[in-house]
Amino acid sequence: MIRDEWVFDTSLSIWFIRVLRIILGALFLWTGLSKMSQIEDFARTIDTFNLLPQILILPAAIIIPWVEFLTGLSLLLGFKTRLSACVCSGLLCLFVIALGINILRGMDNMACGCFGVGISDTLSTALIRNIVLIAICVPLVRTR
User: Fold this and answer.
1) DSSP label of 49
2) CA separation, residue 95 to residues 7, 9, 14, 134 (Å)
3) Given 13, 23, 63, 91, which is the most exposed site by the fewest CB atoms within 10 A?
């Protein structure tokens, strides 16, 4: 048996991968849409993280939601699943780093901005959620 063959050969694993793809795709589609409608608020949230130079805050506030939206749409449609899962993983890793830096700075009670304005989690909660989402990306990245 080839290593990790179980991930690819059973109908159960196909459905498992499909469910993970739909969950991750819907989540990224939702987060992208919620941020697109509130670009200025999202830019303020990025600014409070105090990680980017001022000149990059607005471009990041515009680009990140579009990348999330397009990646989520791609995952939902099953188009370029592996590439989309890699993009999701990369975004989530960047978010984990940003969250971790601000947790270490003692700023755990600020809004993470993950789902736009109005939904606020602590940074620790967002960090744990993003790590779980990275784990969800792994089988999608490994799929054929």
Assistant:
1) H
2) 28, 33, 29, 11
3) 63
Q: Which two tokens stand for residue 108?
A: 């755990």
Q: Going by C-beta distance under 8 Å and a sequence separation of 6 or more, which residues neighbour residue 40?
A: 61
d(CA 93, CA 78): 22
| pLDDT surpasses 90 at 100 | yes
Q: Which residue has the tokens 């989540």?
A: 27
What does the block give as tokens for 106?
A: 């003692």
pLDDT tier, 112 (very low <50, low <70, confident <90, very high otherwise):
confident
- Structure pTM? 0.84
Q: Are 141 and 96 in contact (CB under 8 A)?
A: no
The answer to whether the CB of 74 falls within 8 A of the CB of 80 is: yes
Q: How far apart are CA 49 and CA 89, in angstroms?
A: 20
Residue 120 contacts residue 60 (beta carbons within 8 Å):
no
Q: Across the strands, what pairs with 111?
A: none
35 touches 42 (CB < 8 A) = yes
- The position carrying tokens 């109908």 is 11
